[in-house]
Amino acid sequence: DIQMTQSPSSLSASVGDRVTITCRASQNIRNYLNWYQQKPGRAPKVLISAASTLQSGVPSRFSGSGSGTDFILAISSLQVDDFATYYCHQTYSAPLTFGGGTKVEIK
Amino acid sequence: EVQLVESGGGLVQPGGSLRLSCAASGFTFSNYWMHWVRQAPGEGLVWVSRISTDGRSTSFADSVQGRFAISRDNSQNTLFLQMNSLRAEDTAVYYCARVYDFWTGYYDYWGQGALVTVSS
Q: B14: cis peptide before it, omega within 30°?
């Protein structure tokens, strides 16, 4: 199975900060990497697919980059609505696997 | 509007069974692969199972292989997860999710989740 390692597991940041979350795959997954945002009590919502494709309706302050084994989700200027948990998700091979999540909290 | 609505969750004793349903609307259900993903309380997301558009191809996480079955009724636009021999570690919110397309594999729509609690 492909292991997905996210870092950090949590972070505290202020509104307006630039935030980056890293996801590392245990083997080459090309660009089969997606990012989701989840708020408490809610289902996840896709932000980025195929490593860097911003989903319709997602603010442009979100961006994704990387390929192979190393990926980054960046939020250019953190907003109140962005405080949530973020997950990376590989769809290169079964079983599909998620990272452990990164909880973004208010400083 | 695309909607996925899970039902069938609840409290069950260890060793018991439960069947989850996911009613789909707002899209041509038979054109999409569907998956189940679960999330234990306070934990992360874990893929459980998937099924092809026609129901002929299925796969499962090792942790549920042999105990869970996935199926679909395209005439009723409904996805199912039959869970047998339930264990405490199966306690989680179970989400059904639609796969946008086979090649990218990401989930573009999720249900609201169904809570399954396995406890005596």
A: no
